[in-house]
Amino acid sequence: MATLPRARLGALSFWQTMTIALSAFIVFAFAQFALRGFVDYRAAPPIMHLHGMIMVAWLGLLVTQAKLAGNAGRTGRSTLAIHRRLGWASVVMVPLMVGSMSALCLTALRLHIQPPFFTPGYFLATVHVGGLLFAFMVALAVSYRRRSDWHRRLILGSTILLTDPALGRVLPMPLIVPWGEWVSLAIQLGFVALILRRDRRTLGRAHPATVAVAMAVLLSHVLTELLAITPWWIDLARRIASA
To answer: If you ran DSSP here, which 8-state letter would residue 178 be given?
Structure first.
């Protein structure tokens, strides 16, 4: 009987499990891509290494925050206070994330090292649409920081958006073009469906934040596809690639 409180203390909540699982998947996706020899990181431009370090730092912060928030109810207000103070690191981390994403994308276009099955216009669109929506979701989550039901769903939603480039390194993209975009969308909506199932079990309905996450995921893919076939955007990508 004495081990029961310890077991409960060590148990992970749904939100902690989802955050850790998605973060681990992202790290795994990029790691296996490198181990399979698709990227020569020794010859990679410095911005690639910088973005990788920022990305890992963000995922580390994300997992730490999930653990702190999940344990706050059992370990007291001090844990929640640490969680809130540490959360302000996102004010610095998110611009660094988005800025390094953009810089890496532009560098890849100029060096012609973007994935060969992506057109320059599509590559430029997928990176910037995903990055900006990620930043918007985190900013929205911060604005709802005093409403934990909204905050944790929006933060998890921002993490689901980050799985798109990870899926691009796991799925056999050259074999499923032009359907890769929609396969990735279906998998990401599957992640959202797990949150929706949790909503229905605990609330009996879909939480508005979960609906917002689903809309953001759908919007990211639709906007990417639309921009990728827009003449002025295609011309912009070509000018960047030839600079």
So the answer is: T
